[in-house]
Amino acid sequence: MTDDPVIIHTDGGCRPNPGPGGWGAVLRQRDHVREMFGGEAGATSNNRMELMAPIMALEALTRPVVVHLHTDSTYVRNGITKWVFGWERNGWMTAAKQPVKNVDLWQRLQIASAQHRVEWFWVKGHSGIADNELADALATRGLQEAIAAAAIPT
């Protein structure tokens, strides 16, 4: 595993919430940049799209690497760095004995994260951080393209 980190910025969202959604990710390592995005035209949630962005970014990496992953979602950062261990230990139930929401994506994120050495960072959204702003724009593009694709008759 190289110590030359891949820097990832992610974002996701819906309009309205719940509703159609999109996610975006920017991956950088040295001079290499990859932009990724996707979306769902059906009803999804902000939280699901915020989770899809780091999942898709981590799953796109072809070998184990050090990752500095930046998200503006405290839900994602706290979930993967704190809450997920208790949820898993409690059979994917919350402290209030309710099923964990988005368990399918949390489990997928755990698997994707385990392939790498990931450090998680929270960044304030819409605060002028270039790659966070780009991830936001990519998430919007993913949303728009998903809606447009769903509107095309087959």
UniProtKB/TrEMBL annotation:
This is Ribonuclease H. Its EC number is 3.1.26.4. Binds 1 Mg(2+) ion per subunit. May bind a second metal ion at a regulatory site, or after substrate binding. Mg(2+) 2 binds at residues 11, 136. Keywords: Cytoplasm, Endonuclease, Hydrolase, Magnesium, Metal-binding, Nuclease. Residues 2-144 form the RNase H type-1 domain. Its main location: cytoplasm. GO terms for cellular component: cytoplasm. Monomer. Endonuclease that specifically degrades the RNA of RNA-DNA hybrids. GO terms for molecular function: magnesium ion binding; nucleic acid binding; RNA-DNA hybrid ribonuclease activity. Its cofactor is Mg(2+). GO terms for biological process: DNA replication, removal of RNA primer. Belongs to the RNase H family. Mg(2+) 1 binds at residues 11, 50, 72. It catalyses: Endonucleolytic cleavage to 5'-phosphomonoester. Gene3D superfamilies: Ribonuclease H-like superfamily/Ribonuclease H. The gene is rnhA. The keyword Endoplasmic reticulum does not apply. It is found in: Cytoplasm.
